[in-house]
């Protein structure tokens, strides 16, 4: 696998012609978006205002406001559609195949929802499961797949209005794990201990009825960052060896976002809570900017790098 | 209901909770120890085969192989206490560790399929024993803490609970040194 700096080189050197071409259409697009937004806003405001003048009903302003925002969103999506497709085809797809030739990329597909549910990272079942930018392949004989995921839960308030609460938005990764195990081990970011301190935090964690038994790990730094629940105390420690705990801490540090993970049915599941749609083109900033480029390079390198980073390719003899 | 009666009920509930939590902690230690015992037995079962395969080739390490056989015989004695098991495990781990390093000096052993098979089985069991030891140490730490902390220490004293011993985890195991990585 290419290193991060090799991938950055690839981005700026090999992809340079495509980036220049995309940069031209990006500039045109951003001008077009501003013009359309201005016209759309003026027309909408005038319409809402004139309708309001007829009846002096405040509901018109509220309803019009909602329509204005929803319509604006749809219009924006329509305007960037072609540019997004061109960007994914000429930037994200080559980056992925540069990382590893065996990886297949699909812009519209996503990780099947049964993986999300069976991971047991989330205790609530999502009502709406969307995603894109699906990558799948075998690296060093380890099956790896990941995609952007947005899982939501439907709620109805007392007035009967429906709204959606985000359960998870970010990168969801599934890979083969190199050790045999039967039970479930879930590792979550430690919010209770950070908020309430060690004593109360531990008490709260051990009384979490929606999870399995609390497993206290013997790595102080790991305990500070994560909380572990499992249905087998010994198996959880067999999976989370001292070496793997160190590697997960490094992984968490590199990802810069909260990471939840679980070990179920021979797989490792990782959910990185980016809270945004990933691998989408930048519209108002140049694609040649280092900060923008590194977002794509880092995220992809992080996801594909788990095979080497967490040593998933060092299979135990019994799994060979 | 009178106030003293309510106070008495609350006090009784607290005492029951304390008693139950101490019993749960003691049982957790025992349960995990039983798992360690199973894993250790699995490892001892590999010993005769291992010694038989290695002794043909290893002239200089005869004494270590004899030690390993002796340790196995000791472990098989009935009525071994927890303290004995912990001490034997430490000796056995050290002896097996040095034998496995010595195997590296015998190319004919490294090429022997039976020896490789034993070595792999041993590695896997070692990983499982290590996990069980860590789980045991955590359970014992929780138990020992309850024995020292207020207010459970009074109850533990009345129940005649005594502090338990943990496994000493080898520093090299804690670091998980990977031989392959040393040469990278």
Give descriptors for this structure.
heterodimer; A: 320 residues; alpha+beta; 9-stranded antiparallel sheet; 50% helix; globular; B: 184 residues; mainly alpha; de novo design (two linked rop proteins); 8 helices; 79% helix; disordered C terminus
Can you offer a commentary on this structure?
The complex is a heterodimer of chains A (320) and B (184). Chain A has ten helices and nine strands. Chain A is α+β, with helices and mostly antiparallel strands. Chain A has one domain (4-180, 266-319). Chain A has a nine-stranded antiparallel β-sheet with strand order 1-2-3-4-9-8-5-7-6, with helices on both faces. Chain A is globular. Chain A starts with a helix and ends in an 11-residue tail after the last helix. The model of chain A has no long low-confidence stretch (mean pLDDT 90). Chain B has a domain at 30-131: Up-down Bundle (de novo design (two linked rop proteins)). By secondary structure, chain B is mainly alpha-helical. Chain B has eight helices and no strands. The radius of gyration of chain B is 23 Å and the shape is rod-shaped. Chain B starts with a helix and ends with a helix. Helix content of chain B is 79%, strand content 0%. The interface between A and B is medium-sized, with 15 and 22 residues.
Structural class of chain A: alpha+beta
Strand content of chain B: under 5%
End-to-end C-alpha gap of chain B: 76 Å
User: What order do the helices and strands of chain B follow?
Assistant: HHHHHHHH
Q: Specify the number of helices of chain B.
A: 8
**CATH class wording of the domain at 30-131 in chain B:** Mainly Alpha
């Amino acid at each position: 696998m290419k290193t991060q700096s090799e991938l950055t080189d690839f981005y700026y050197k090999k992809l340079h012609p495509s980036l220049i071409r995309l940069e031209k259409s990006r500039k045109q697009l951003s001008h077009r978006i501003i013009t359309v937004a201005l016209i759309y806003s003026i027309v909408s405001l005038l319409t809402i205002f004139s309708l309001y003048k007829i009846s002096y009903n405040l509901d018109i302003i509220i309803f019009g406001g909602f329509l204005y925002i929803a319509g604006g969103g749809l219009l924006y999506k329509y305007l960037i559609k072609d540019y997004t497709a061109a960007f994914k085809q000429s930037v994200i797809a080559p980056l992925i195949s540069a990382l590893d030739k065996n990886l297949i990329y699909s812009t519209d597909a996503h990780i099947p929802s049964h993986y999300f549910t069976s991971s047991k990272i989330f205790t609530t079942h999502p009502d709406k499961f969307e995603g894109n930018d699906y990558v799948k392949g075998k690296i060093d004989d380890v099956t790896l797949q990941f995609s952007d995921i947005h899982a939501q839960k439907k709620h109805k308030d007392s007035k009967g209005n429906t709204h959606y609460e985000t359960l998870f938005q970010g990168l969801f990764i599934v890979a083969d794990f190199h050790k045999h195990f039967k039970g479930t081990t879930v590792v979550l970011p430690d919010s209770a201990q950070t908020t309430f301190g060690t004593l109360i935090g531990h008490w709260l964690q051990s009384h979490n009825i929606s999870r399995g038994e609390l497993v206290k790990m013997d790595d102080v730094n790991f305990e500070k960052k994560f909380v572990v629940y499992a249905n087998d105390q010994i198996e959880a420690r067999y999976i989370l060896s001292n070496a793997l705990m160190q590697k997960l801490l490094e992984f968490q540090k590199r990802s810069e976002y909260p990471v939840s993970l679980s070990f179920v049915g021979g797989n490792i599941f990782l959910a990185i809570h980016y809270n945004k749609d990933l691998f989408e083109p930048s519209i108002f900033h140049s694609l040649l900017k280092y900060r923008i480029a590194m977002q794509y390079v880092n995220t992809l390198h992080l996801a594909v790098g788990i095979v080497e980073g967490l040593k998933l390719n060092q299979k135990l003899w019994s799994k060979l | 209901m009178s106030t003293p009666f309510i106070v008495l009920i609350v006090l009784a509930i607290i005492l029951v909770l304390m008693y139950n939590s101490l019993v749960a902690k003691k049982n957790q230690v025992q349960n995990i120890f039983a798992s360690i015992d199973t894993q250790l037995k699995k490892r001892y079962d590999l010993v005769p085969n291992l010694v038989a395969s290695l002794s043909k080739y290893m002239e200089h390490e005869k004494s270590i192989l004899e030690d390993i056989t002796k340790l196995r015989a000791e472990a098989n004695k009935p009525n071994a206490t927890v303290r004995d098991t912990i001490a034997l495990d430490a000796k056995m781990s050290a002896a097996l560790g040095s034998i496995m390093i010595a195997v590296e000096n015998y190319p004919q052993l490294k090429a022997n399929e039976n020896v490789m098979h034993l070595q792999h089985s041993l590695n896997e069991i070692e990983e499982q024993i290590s996990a069980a030891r860590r789980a045991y140490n955590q359970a014992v730490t929780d138990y020992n803490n309850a024995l020292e902390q207020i207010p459970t220490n009074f109850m533990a004293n009345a129940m005649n609970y005594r502090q338990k011993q943990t496994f000493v985890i080898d520093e090299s195991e804690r670091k998980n040194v990977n031989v392959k990585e040393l040469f990278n």
